[in-house]
Fold:
Amino acid sequence: MHKLEIHPKAKGLIFDLDGTLADTMPVHFVAYQNILGKYGVDYSAKMFLELAGVPAVETIVKINEVYGSSLNPEEVGHEKEAEYERMMHEMKPIDAVVDLVKQYHGKLPIAVGTGGYTRLAWKTLEIIGLKDYIEILVSANDVQNPKPHPETFLRCAKQMGIAPKDCQVFEDGDPGMQAARTAGMMATLVTDYYDVFKA
Structure:
């Protein structure tokens, strides 16, 4: 398997969090299944992977559309996040990507752009040992338009003081890759570099 590398033109690095730096996807999936199962929704792995990186509340809106359910997005979204938090100690770091952050820390500006919520994002960074390596974090709490809209990554670039075209984004999901490309950034799919969660 080839090594994950920084683009020679990159002046700033932006990392997604769930599924990119932290192997949280299996934990998120089980949390969704546990909560949605209570409401009689059999949430598929395929749908879960299609919505990778989309915040919980927006995910529930989408589930209502697809499954014809009438769940309260705010309530069920927060229920799912609480269930996830209860289980999040089970996550593991994705070493190939985490090593890159440690290698370039202090050499290039680094930001995290996540569809997760601020408090849990910092908790995730703490669990995987990156809390002291990240200064800029843009989460679902900071944007009006989550991925696949480019706002998350554009805010990262602005806070780093780097032009979007000079930023390299590391992502594991389609919505995030789309957001990076729309922002005019270099987009790298990290799942080419490790064995991705298969459900």
User: Anything to note?
Assistant: Residues 114 and 139 are 5 Å apart (CA to CA). The longest helix spans residues 73-87.
